[in-house]
Murein L,D-transpeptidase
Amino acid sequence: MGTRFGARAAVLGVAVALALPVVVAGGGAAQAAASCNLTTGPYQRQVEQFLGRPVDGKQSAADCTAIRSFQATHGITPTQGYAGPLTWQTMSTMLAQRAAGTTPNRAGDCPVDRGRIACVDLTRQLSWIQDGATLTYGPVPVRTGKDGTETRTGLKKIYYRNIDHWSTLYNVSMPYAQFFDGGIAFHSTTKSMWNPPGSGGCVNMRSADAKAYWNLLGQGEDVYVYGRKPGT
């Protein structure tokens, strides 16, 4: 297969804000009663607060409808409106991403002495590009490997790029693929970045972010993966 390289973009010097979805509840009590699990979940209060619902720790038809909408948006199953561990884990990850703001490397975990580098924080499911200590793109949400096919940690280098890659292993398209660790690559996907359980090891990205990474990175550049994805 031939490799096609995108033009490297100039350093913008401006962080790209992390965009999280706004969940809008819909449907009435009759619909919720017919299709929702009206049992109070173990994370009821936390989920109510996240969704901007009245926080009383008791499941209602309206609560259930709002939770189901969130679950459906991100492919969380069973999509029954129950405030269980997986739903709260997904919300907790979103909260951690929001807290990162425009200083994702505040703790200094990603090296600042290697020039241009793409950082991947598995714990917060975040990635960004920095030049030394200067943030040049991101942070953006990513979807990394699931339990059993985890994205491997450590310092890597991009060794192969293919803008229209096709995976013969998974029989799927991998646009803007940049491989940095065996079969593990940055690439775009149409799935939600918060869709559990995760990828087969690759770092999934939204299309606009994968395209930006394609333009900002090149063969031989550094990638640093650290942390541990919740649930792995």
